[in-house]
Write a structure and sequence with these properties.
Helices cover 39% and strands 15% of the residues. It contains nine helices and nine strands. Bound molecules: zinc ion.
Length: 250
Amino acid sequence: MALLLRIDVDKPFGHHALLPKLASKLSEETNWPLRWVQPYLPHCHAMIRMLDDAGISAFFYFRRCTAPSAATLQLLADGGHQWGFHAEDTRSFESFERELRFFENLVGQPVQHFTKHGSGQLKLGKHHYAPYEPDRYREWAQQLGIRYFSGNGTPASAAELGAAEPGWWPQCFWLERHYRHPQLNQLEQLVAAAATQDVVMLAHPETWYTYRQVADDMQALIWLMTTQQVKWKRDLTAPHTTAQKTAPAV
Ligand SMILES: [Zn+2]
């Protein structure tokens, strides 16, 4: 049993200062990754390095405007992290597939799994289709032979945090406190749940990089996971992490 760390990369330059905020907004509104503007994805690179130091492999998801550069892909590969697509234009199967293929062309590699940007309440930018419709995404994933394994729901109990069926977690524990449910909002509850079943936690590098409390919670989580000897899940196909000891790095 283990904790899968899902990381949605929403901001191309972060939002830790005025210039990164403006550059991120420009890139989001033009819907184009400005990968030649440096430092690109500084918050994401810092988070990858922090996880590498802690010996943790995670699952990163990138929007079209945060498409990983060659340097990012190298960092991810070096750390044994997995990555996929963070979908925005989900108004139809056709628009989803168009955006997915555009992203794959940008990155130069096929996508194996994806997550959805936004949880339905807010329109997050000019090109974002706000409705959150996980059942449709699951169908589309099946059609394309890729995986949609992690939804954006907020669980009220450890039971809701677990997989609804093998390979499908509709809800996740959020690193950002204001997204957690009042009845399931302690890191200790998350780690206890991960000790008995596979569960997903969602983090965003821009908030981790910007807000002290988010970074502190991440450190506290790593400490809890270590002291309670709960494993980090690093392979979607493995039922739990006891298989990790013999499995090659992914
Ligand atoms: Zn997002």
